[in-house]
Amino acid sequence: MKILVIDGQGGRLGKTLVEKLHAGIPQAELIAIGTNTIATEVMRKAGASRCATGENAVCVACRTADVIMGPLGIIAADSLMGEISPRMANAVASAPGYRVLIPMNLCDTYVAGVSGPASDIVANAIEHVQRLMQES
Questions:
Q1: How far is the C-alpha of 13 from the C-alpha of 34, rounded, in Å?
Q2: Beta bridge partners of 100
Q3: Using one digit for the tens of pLDDT, what is the confidence trace for 4-32?
Q4: CATH code of 94's domain
Q5: Which candidate among 17, 56, 76, 81 keeps its CA 20 to 30 Å from the CA of 90?
Q6: 58: domain range?
Q7: Looking at the 3D structure of the chain, how many domains does it have?
C-alpha cells in the first residue's frame, strides 16, 4: 500500500504521521510531499521512503497513492497560510485514493466537533489506516 503524507509550514503534523505510520504499518510505502523544503526534510528524517517538494510533486503523487493523509487544509485552496495552491487542493480532492484528513482548527477555519489533543486525533487516523490495510 502506498501512503502519501502531505504537509506544509514546519512539517510537524507530517512528521508525526510518518513516524506513527512507519511504526504501525511498516510494510507501507510512505511518500512525503512537503509544500516547502523544511516540511519535506522534517518528514524525510521521520522515516518517509521517498520525498519531494512542491505543487507538481503533490499533483503527481496524488495520482497513484492508495491513501492520502494530511491536515484538512490540503483540500482547501490557499490554506496552510497560502501554501496550498488551488491546483494542489484539486489534485488531493479529486485523487482516486482514499483520504484521511486530520482536522485542525487553524488558518481561519473552525472544524465543529473537533476536540481533544492533536495526538488523539492522529492516533485515531493511524488506527483507521491500519483497519483499511486489514480489509484490503
A1: 11
A2: 69
A3: 999 999 999 999 999 999 999 999 999 99
A4: 3.40.50
A5: 17
A6: 2-135
A7: 1
